[in-house]
Amino acid sequence: MALNEQDYFEILYHLQEEVAGNEPQLANNFLEISNNIIEEYEDPRKILIHSLERLIELLEQESSNTYENVLTNLNNFVETEEGQKIDGIHVELSPKQKKLYQQDYIDLSEMKSQETMISELNEIIEEIRSNK
């Protein structure tokens, strides 16, 4: 069954709600990106596809796989004063961020893998592309 213009927007709005509920740290970025895409394109199908592609990029940046790669690269090119391997990364937050997130730092090792979600989003993109 072919999707109509309204279907594409309903999918996009549902996706925005899901991101806000499940990935609140990405919600504002994804909403802003989606709104920019809506302004840039007229075709709702292209809007949805480009929004999904940008969401995948955001998820890849947030994925634990990215963390593991960064940690590996750090250990390949950086030495500590004691000669030990770097076993973790945490980011200290600014006073404003501390208040917002109610914590002093973010431990990047606690990032979850987004590979399943990324794979599912890629499948959705392919399904949309095949339903012209």
Overall description:
With 132 residues, the chain is mainly alpha-helical. The chain folds into 2 domains: 1-63 and 113-132; 64-111, no CATH class. 69% of the residues lie in helices and 5% in strands. The protein has helices at 5-22, 24-40, 44-62, 64-77, 95-101, 115-130, and strands spanning 90-92, 105-107. The longest helix is centred in the middle third of the chain and has 19 residues, at 44-62.
Structural class: mainly alpha
Q: Radius of gyration, Cα only, in angstroms? A: 19 Å
Low-confidence sequence ranges:
none
Could you state the order of secondary-structure elements as H and E?
Answer: HHHHEHEH
The separation of the N and C termini measures: 10 Å
Number of strands: 2
**Tally of distinct domains:** 2
What's this entry about, in short?
The protein is mainly alpha-helical and about 130 residues long. The protein contains 6 helices and 2 strands.
Keywords, separated by commas or semicolons:
132 residues, mainly alpha, 2 domains, two-stranded antiparallel ribbon, elongated
How would you summarize the topology of this molecule?
Layout: H1 5-22, H2 24-40, H3 44-62, H4 64-77, E1 90-92, H5 95-101, E2 105-107, H6 115-130
Helix pairs in contact: 1-2, 1-3, 2-3, 3-6
